[in-house]
Give the backbone structure.
Amino acid sequence: MGKILEKGVIGALLHDIGKVIYRGSGLDGRAHSISGTDFIKNYTDDKDILDCISYHHKDDLYNATLKKDSPAYIVYFADNISSGLDRRYIEGESGGFDKNRPLESIYNLLNNSNSNDTYVPSEIKEAVKYPDNKTGQDLSYAYNNLVAHLSNDLKAIRLNGEYINSLLEIAEAYLSYVPSSTHKGQVSDISLYDHLKITAAFTSCIALYLLSSQRTNFHTELFEKEKEFLNERAFALLSIDISGIQQFIYSISSKGALKALRSRSFYLEIFLENTIDEILSACGLTRANILYTGGGHAYALLPNTETCRSNVKNVIANINNRLMDVFGSNLFIAYGFQPCSANELMSQTDDPESYSNIFRNLSAQISSMKLRRYSADDIRKLNSTSIDGEGRECSICGISEKLLDNKDVGMICQNCGAFIDISNELIKPSNVLVVCRQPIEEKYLLLYSGTGSNLYLHAMTEEKAREILKKDKDKILRIYSKNTFRTGLALSSKLWMGDFYAKNQDGNLKTFEELAKQSAGIDRIGVLRADVDDLGSTFVRGFVREGDDIDKNRYVTISRTATLSRSLSIFFKYYINDILNNPFFSLTTNRKGPRNVVIVYSGGDDMFIVGAWDEVLSAAVDIRRAFSRYTGGALTISAGYAFYDYKYPISLMAEETAQLEKRAKANEYEDGSKNSISLFGLEYHDGRLVDRHTYDWQTFEEKVLGEKYRIIQDLYNECDDYGNSFLYNIVRLLKEADKDRINIARLAYLLARREPRRSASLSAKEAYMNFSKNIYKWALDKEERRQLITALTIFVYTIRNEKEE
């Protein structure tokens, strides 16, 4: 990284730091560019970096005597683009600044919402940060606390290229819930962190774009000819997509399945991060340029230079070749590279679809690449794969190359062996993930560099990583830290990661069998697959304000898209851990402590969770409620849920719950569509398949669980005279009532015949009266009857044991 670029990125990440100081109490009431410069003088005396902070406004820059190639001009221009992206005026409002104005939720304007949710400034913590609608608070104390934290953490790093990732982490930790602008007439839904980060991304792109053609007079290019440069296609949006994820993760079947699942899912997350880092490194960029990573997808802002385009092509081609060598056709990276101007990214062109077209073009490029993923030589290479001479296969993934005999799980391939060997180290929260040029420990997973060479992923303690850095820093290429800001650890990047798992007595990951035996009632594994509804269209058109006669695209910008992506990522990759660690809803009354579940995958917008069957279903309710509160109802999720014997093949669990998820997304009901859960699957009844258990979330939570399930539970809490057969008979009669109403009369007879004995307690009699009255009432209505069947089905399994199978 060149010095101009390095100093420009650092200056961009710090250029508005004075706003935090200005908004505090008794700290510094001067203009934020002045207070920010003086604050950063405590940590560096580099004139170029300080100039970026001092002169990022036009009036200040106009009278400055700077070198023509000062990075301050680049930061000024990048700040203007970024500000143009995120500070859109509120129609009918004007006025000055209110330093007590809080950050507004990015979901307030999403999908035509009109909410007023806000956040009190604070650092990122483990607990989910939910918005509220509190206004008029004195926030100076909160800013004072943040300044103290910033001061402390900046002392632990050096303001140079080696610590840019650490600087990014500091900004994210303390400025994610601080508004970028507090202007009364502007929408204030972009955090200061997001503004600083995207300003840094634009800065690096502009610098490399101009330097690529020796245009080093930044004063002329960006100050005097500012309007012309806004229309120049200096930028490119990169999108990459990994194919084959589902098959790679779920095509396993052995008693080591859960460890293998977790390791494979984890590996793909790190593989994606490492791939994007290799691309950024080849282009001379930093992680400030990443807009989104998750679920096998990534977006990044790059300079539109021939060198960058060529480097992206070569890196992806080289890594694809290595994937073909190691995994055959199982994994493949497709990508799109779409040039664009600043005005296109700001929706400031004559074409109202200019911003949306960027994403459409990227999608088309990726689809085209997937259709022609292999050349004739590649196909010949794939077909020449050697096969084990004795016809043996890996007991986990089924391939027949490079087999080893594992004493725990039998015959396995080298890759699956590596996944199992390192799995316990990977899941330890205290460990960091170290990518090395050569193996430094026995256990590792292979990653690939942009040139196609092997890289080695190790899991180790932070102390050991620091020791290696101190003795021989060149051994380490990069370090990833899970969910922890490790300020001062050079070469380190923090990754949000949904890594919650139920532990056994040894502190290791519980097996499928151990999880099943923690279930209420019958021993079963619950499986949940869920993702956000209509997210693709939301990213492209979610901020279009239908019915806005002035400018319906005023909020359609890459800044909001990036902020939305990050908000979803932190929910599914980080806050999900808190939701599972501190459960709220339960099907039974005796559940305490963290959930007996394991996150197999939770990414940018979707999840796959397994565990004790009742706890997975309860977790689904908690997650849905948390997500609705987190997004203010602007987004919804749909889910598929089923439970299985712990010996059932995980590949079939994944496939069947995926079908249930699709069924939930296809659900239409009186108030809408999607936003649903589909349970258990189709039932064979009266010669045809019937879907009895797909509901919108509100109906499922309020009517099935909150009403009918609780009535059943109340009876069984009061009386122990009613066994499973009583409930089975009720279910049978309810199902038969669809074709013959005589079964309603039979149900009434059954309920009357099973009234409590005279000697039963008053509370038991009242519970049964309430139960029988409601059961009969619900049986008369087809929809209420369907809900009751679902509630009874769930409850029966909470009290059923293995002998009754």
Remarks:
- The chain is about 45% helix and 15% strand.
- Residues 521 and 797 are 6 Å apart (CA to CA).
- Residues 88-94 have pLDDT under 50 and may be disordered.
